[in-house]
Each structure stands twice: as C-alpha cells, then as structure tokens.
Amino acid sequence: MDLLRGPQGKGSFEPDQQVTCDYVTPDKKLTGDTPKFLCDLSGGDVVKVKYNSGEVYAEVAASRLLWAIGFGSERDYPVQVACRNCPIEPWFWSSERRVAESKFRIASIQRKLEGKEIALSKLEGWAWPELDRVDESVGGAPRAQRDALKLLAVFLQHSDSKAGNQGFICLADGVVKDEQGNEDCKKPFMYIHDVGLTFGKATLLNNTRVDLHAWQSQPVWKDAGQCVANQKKSLSGTLVHPRISEAGRKFLADLLVQLSDAQLRDMFTAARIERLEQEIHTPQGERKAAIDDWVQVFKKKRDEVVNQRCPP
C-alpha cells in the first residue's frame, strides 16, 4: 500500500501536485475556523481547498493512516494551488478584492468518502458515546472494532471530537429502494470525518495540532492497568478517557504493526510535515524536526498499544 500517493482513483492527485482552478463564490460563509475556499477544477468539479493551517498537514497524515489500516476516511491530498480570480485572502472573500491568480504552496484538497450521507435536519454526525449503542446482533460492528477506533482516536489525540466531526454514510452499494421509491440503507458506516486536530494533544480549547513535542508528551494510557486511554476533554469534545477492551486493543495493535518504517515515512512525507520546521531539543542541542523524528514517536506510541494487556 502506497502511503505517499494515497488512495488512487477518480479525482486523486499526486503528492504536491500543482493544481489550477477558478474561484467559486460560496452562497454563505464556509463553516469552521480553518481557512478554506471553493474552487472549480473544470467542468463543475468544485473542491474545497484548505490552506495556511496546521490542519492541512494533520488531515493528510491522519487520513492516510485511517485509510491504510482499514478505517474509513475522507481522501485528503497535499497539493499546491493556483487560484484564478481569487480574493487576495479568500477566507475573507466578502471584503477582499480579486486578483488574476493567487498561489497557495501548502494546501490540501479533500474528496469525500464514497457513499450517501445519512443525516437528520439540525443533527450532524455522531458523538462518541453513541458508538456504544451499535448493535452487533443486527449486523453492527463488534465491540473490538469500535474500541479499536476509540483507541486510534486517542493515539492521534483527536481533540475536536464533537459530533459534527464524525460522519455517518450509507456505502455506495448499500442504498436500496422499495417499490414506492423510498430509500433504505443496508450498509451504514460510521467514521471520523474531520481529523484536522490531530498529532498534538487534546486541549480544552482545541489549540494544539501537528506539534511533535505535544504529541510525544501524551501517553496512550491514562490508567494502563485498567486500559483507560488518555484523552482529555475539550470544550467541544465527546471522547473522554475511554476504557478499551483487550479485544479492541489487540485489534488495533494487529493493524498498526503491519505498517513498515518506510510506509510511516511516506505518510509523514506526504503530509509535508517537515515544512513546519519545528524545533526539537536533543542532547546535541536544538535542531529542526525531521520525518524520522515523527516516525520514532509514532513507533513509541504503537509500542504502548502493542505491549499493553487489558483486563478481560
């Protein structure tokens, strides 16, 4: 599995590909706090471009990890974008004048996970306690898989775990219609939709992401003896210190150990994480964090998962 190129298929992009598009004025301000804008690649293929934020780095790395080990995710691609007829600062599009072309050298484009969104009016996504309501007896995911997803979220320090950042879709081949045309779903699927606040540490204000020192400082376990995972509550968060079953720990461990050092390097390289130029302290003094530093922290955390044993 190629973690550098990521998921391939219709709408995919090569790492750091240069993309040209035409700015699209939104009907209303885009949601969230991360700078973003809509852009038409051609023929009505309108994509969301994120830029000038740590979320650009975090989403690429985290979505590659989720994809690689079999948990669903959106497809996030690291690109460079040339936006034609763009506002000088597109995040403040309503007040900025347009220019012929604006360039964003650190940007990402997201492709949605294939399927049909399941949503109710004014009710978006799912909160983490709702995961415990999944019924295995009627075809839902077993507890081992659900606990593995919780532990993976902790591993990543998925700080902004509000309901809207977890998605609920019907997989493409699971939508069925009855004789009256009413739709039903035979293959519902729950996944983490927004992984932009990861690879740091969970904080009250969700203000730490892609921070190597912060991520390194957070143990996987709050109470290793009882397998209570270490996830502090943020103001928006719904995942707080989950208790993980032995089956869930082992399920995630067995997936993580399949990733080679080369694949981990590719994952962080795809995210262009070294361009953050973060300083780290070593016995030899301060230096810039390298890809291998991120790989080593990942492997240390993986060891915490692999070497632990949880109560039955």
What does the model show?
- The longest helix is centred in the C-terminal third of the chain and has 17 residues, at 291-307.
- The protein has 312 residues and is an alpha+beta fold.
- Helix 2 crosses helix 4 (246-256) and helix 5 (261-270) packs across helix 6 (291-307).
- It has helices at residues 54-69, 143-156, 212-217, 246-256, 261-270, 291-307, and strands at 17-24, 36-40, 46-51, 75-87, 98-111, 115-117, 166-171, 175-177, 183-185, 188-192, 221-223, 228-229, 279-282, 285-288.
- It is 24% helix and 25% strand.
- The protein is globular.
- The mean pLDDT is 94.
- The chain contains six helices and 14 strands.
- The protein has two domains: 18-111; 115-307.
- Strand 8 (175-177) and strand 9 form a beta hairpin.
